[in-house]
Amino acid sequence: MKKIILSIEGMTCSACSSGLEKYLNKQNGVIEASVNLVMANATIIYDENIITNQDKLDDFVKQAGFKSLGEFKEINLEKNNKKQKIMFIIFTILAIVLMYISMGHMINLPIFSLLDVTVNPINYAICLFIFTIAFIIYGFDILKNGYKNLIHKTPNMDTLVGIGVLSSFLYSVYSMIMVFKGHTQYVHNLYFESTAIVIYFIKLGRYIDGISKDRTKDAIQKLVKITPSKAIVKVDGKEKQVTLDEIHKGDIVICKPGEKIAVDGEIVEGKAHFDESFITGESKPVSKQKGDKVIAGSINYDGYIEYRAEKIGKDSTISEIVRLVIEASNTKAPIAKIADKVSGYFVPIIIIIAILTFIVYLILGYEFSESLVRFVTILVVACPCSLGLATPLAIVVSEGVSATNGILIKKSEILENARKVDTIVFDKTGTLTYGKLKISKVINYSDIKQDRLLQLVGSIESKSTHPIGNAFLDYLEENNLEKLEVKEFENISGLGIKGIVDNQEFILGSAKILEKYNIKNIYSKDEEKLSEQGNSIVYVAKENKILALIGVNDVIRKNALEVIKELNNNKIETIMLTGDNSKTSEKIAKEIGITKVISNVLPQDKTNAIKEMKKENRYVLMCGDGINDSPALSIADIGVSVNSGTDIAMDSSDVILTKNDLNGILNLITISKKTIRNIKQNLFWAFFYNCLTIPIAMGVFTKYGISINPMIASIAMMFSSITVILNALRLKNVKLIK
Questions:
Q1: Among 209, 251, 275, 427, which one carries the catalytic annotation?
Q2: Where would I find the H helices in 66-217?
Q3: What is the pLDDT of residues 198-247, one digit of tens each?
Q4: CATH assignment of 2-71, given 3.30.70.100, 3.40.50.1000, 3.30.559.10, 3.30.1460.10?
Q5: Would you tell me which of 12, 332, 517, 599 could form a disulfide with 585, CB atoms 3.0–4.6 Å apart?
Q6: Backbone angles phi, psi at 496, to 5 degrees
Q7: pLDDT classification of 279: cutoffs 50, 70, 90
Q8: Is 427 tagged catalytic?
Q9: Does domain 89-227+317-421+637-738 have CATH number 1.10.287?
Q10: 228-315: which CATH architecture?
């Protein structure tokens, strides 16, 4: 089983995408296909034993009436080029001139007698005919697509427009011939201008749609632009500038101050501070040196480094994020499947309604021209485009907003379902806490400033192999403090360590080390308080005097208290599910506001606990570290992992909080609520628009003085799509917790 994303050309409305999707899913060897109208691509899962190459899939797309542009590699924003703009300006001028000639006499505008409808009807007819031919050439792609999709039994918006404008055009040609034969009254049955203006407004709508759709992809495009377009590699000792495509695995790449890392790799020479906030959310620069990993897109602040390329192209962390976001936007949320199903039947139903209206008007004794106008108006005004855009536009915008805020959603159905969550289960270590020892409390009894004190202690601890030493090393790195030279370092087994820094001997360790060196402990009560808070204790002493008492603990994550409080306020039950002992777990749970704790459980017990919750008809979100909690994450309705960016490809959860920030859970629920509300609004306006305009186009309200013609219908159709697009774009302004 393989998966591929193909770029598709020729899709103009939801009937196109749903028709192609249906066709692909019927083909032998295709396991599942999902087509995205906004991104103009198709995600296909297929059996490689039956479909042995991509050409076969390209043929399927062609047979359905579209064109495959090959494997989807990047987001290509459909920029309106200079030629398109010039053509659009020219035809805007022609449309104004055409409207002046055809309708100017209705409002008493001066008209050249040569083109006056009453004085020279033949000249008038020929002039309109020539203008209309120009517009038909301009909109030939619409007519071609409409015909192809009709032949392939997947009629779409282009089919409706094509049938409508060609019917109007052919009847106008017939009327023009009658004018040539001397039946000048037929000059009033010419609808050339309707044919031309309908095409013009549809092209105008497509032009605006193209710009607007690109805006929906802005957030995803920002991710793509994180990496630089070029880099410098070292070849035979010399520097050579290359594009990213020219970098190969194992190449030595150079990064200077102010430049971005081009590909994921490992530093082989030099050191520098890097901004990795786009992945980790950490605003402080991270110090890295030889042997450390660097992530594509991170910014080198202050050093020269050389690094070995390890993950290039689509294997890089950023490419992996972009791929997952695009794949997620291609998956169908349940609400989208309903809209697709409706739009699949919509076009054939509209064609039937238009034909029946035409026949009924003829039976009722209306003129052929009036019946035809009703027929064409119904075809043009019925817009499946807005209906089809309602869901995918909102999904694409929300996926992009989520990704740029450190929430990587793998399936679009999560955007629909996260709002339903009523129970959130948290793992403790690595989720509610950082999962590694940190300095939690410093009680300084000396005159030495705290940073200087911790620099002295950290320098000595750097010589130790005890896990506590890592807490001090992290502090030095996070605060850009250099390690000082340590002399006569000594490890005192089971008690602590000592060493000389700045010609002063410092003793570090537990209370027992004080006894060894006959140092009186007058701060035992402070030690008790720190111990009760779950801290490991480090005494700092010099010359028989205690300088400080340092508590080292697995620190609770930033914002954990605020996040739990907000969830509780929203009546979402929070539960801690951990393998740690009950005393430690309950202490942390109490501190952050979690009232229910399930402790001392093995991984399989976590899974069983979540199964029991689901049996109680709860909608459960499990938040874990993405590795040890994989079974529990997969069994929960939504699995969320607090994870580092480099683990993205291996993660098994539905959602990854790439910035290691628990606020992401609140933001996920907020985005879900806003997205579904936006989709429902879009669907309402799309259905309301069609329910309102189709009866008007049929002439139901003519006796009340309410009617429209094909030109007004084409304008209305354009604005219906624009309304949906603008509403979806409002999701870019969703207020999230930073």
A1: 427
A2: 82-103, 121-138, 140-151, 157-180, 192-216
A3: 888 878 777 776 666 666 666 666 666 677 878 999 988 889 998 887 88
A4: 3.30.70.100
A5: 599
A6: 160, -150
A7: low
A8: yes
A9: no
A10: Distorted Sandwich (2.70)
